[in-house]
Each structure stands twice: as C-alpha cells, then as structure tokens.
Amino acid sequence: MPAPAIKICGISTASSLEATIAARADYVGFNFYAPSPRFVKPDLAAALARAAAGRIEKVGVFVDAGDGEIAQACEAAGLDAIQLHGGESPERCARLAAQLGRKVWKVLSIASRADLDQAGAFAGAADLLLLDAKTPKGSLPGGMGLSFDWSLLAGWRSPLPWGLAGGLSSANVAEAARATGAPLVDTSSGVESAPGIKDEALIAAFCAAAQSG
C-alpha cells in the first residue's frame, strides 16, 4: 500500500511552514476560522503563501464562512483548495467550486457508522472528503486532538477521494494509515507543543512516520 499524502494544518509561522515543506508534506493548511488558536488573517496567509508558492499545495480551512470571506482568502493566499468544516451542504460545495475554480474538501464529523452515510450526498459536489472526529457540542469543530473509532471504516467504500483526520500524531499515524487505508492523513494539534504552537521536530516525526508505510 502506498504511503498516504500528508497535510499539516494550522500553519501560522514561516518557520513551521519551512519545516512542513522540508518534511515533504503534500499540503499545508491555513486556518481562517477566527475562534481557533491557529487562525491566520488574510495578510499573514498571503505572506506565508508567497513563501510556499510552487513548493506545496495550499488549503484554506473555513467554518460556515460567507462567500465573500472565502473568496477574499482564496485571492490573498492563492489557495489550491478550500476545506469546509461546518454545515455546508453539497449544493453549496458545488457552487463554491464553480464560482472560485478551486478544489473543495468537505469535512465529515464522525462518531458512528451512520455519520458515514452523509458521504454519498457529496459525490460530484466535493473533490475530497476529510473524515474527522465529532467534537463535543460547544467546542471547536476540529483541532481538539480527538480520534474516532477507525473500525467504523471497516468495509466502507468512499464515493470520492478521502482523507483521515482527528487525533493523529507520529505515535499513531502509521497504524492509522494501515488500519484504514486512508489515502491522505491530516494533523494539526498532533504536531503542536501547545494549542496553535507548531513544533518543528514533531512535524518532521509525523511526516517520517506517515511516509514509513
């Protein structure tokens, strides 16, 4: 089984961006959700994006953001894809993809097998599904270091490309990839020394573990 693609999410400094590129990750994530400790304003995202240009794919993370806000961030940061982490419908995903000319990743929050049943509705509307752990009501929608039960994916066949998120770190990412067959793995808090503070050594260790197959 080939090693999964890797996304390091919540990058907000030049040093953590360089560490992500040096570790040969495939995607860098910029978080545009203001309540998150990983939030980046469009001007900072633009500066980071200039440094990343041509070296790594850039994904913007949004939670129920307005069309104008998403368009502004796409323009400022030259995003290759938008990751929608709220209650966005398949119809909205398809509309944003058409309007912005960007790939759309839709996050599905998973706590039970029934949550996977949402996937089919996004076939033809999104380019990729990202399966993340459902977080407690009233908390942030992601970046909490929580995992869901990977055995829920046994026998599941995604109707479109997909990735795995939620509580992944260098300690468990190789096991997660083997157990689920995930073609992409995504981490944020799993490579941090404190909320929003990326650790360059942890980024390197995560990527090495994921690439180990």
What does this protein look like?
Strands 7-6-5-4-3-2-1-8 form an 8-stranded parallel sheet, covered by helices on one side. The chain is of the alpha/beta class. It has 6 helices and 10 strands; from the N terminus they run βαβαβαβαβββαβββα.
Please write out the topology:
Elements: E1 5-8, H1 14-22, E2 27-31, H2 42-52, E3 57-62, H3 67-77, E4 81-84, H4 90-100, E5 103-110, E6 128-133, E7 162-164, H5 173-180, E8 184-187, E9 192-194, E10 197-198, H6 200-211
Parallel strand pairs: 1-2, 1-8, 2-3, 3-4, 4-5, 5-6, 6-7
Antiparallel strand pairs: 9-10
Keywords:
single chain; 213 residues; alpha/beta; eight-stranded parallel β-sheet; two-stranded antiparallel ribbon; 6 helices; 21% strand
Regions with pLDDT < 50 over 5+ consecutive residues? Answer: none
Give me the secondary-structure category. Answer: alpha/beta
Strand tally: 10
Shape: globular
Q: Terminal Cα separation, in Å?
A: 7 Å
If you average the pLDDT, what whole number results?
94
**Biggest sheet statistics:** 8 strands, parallel
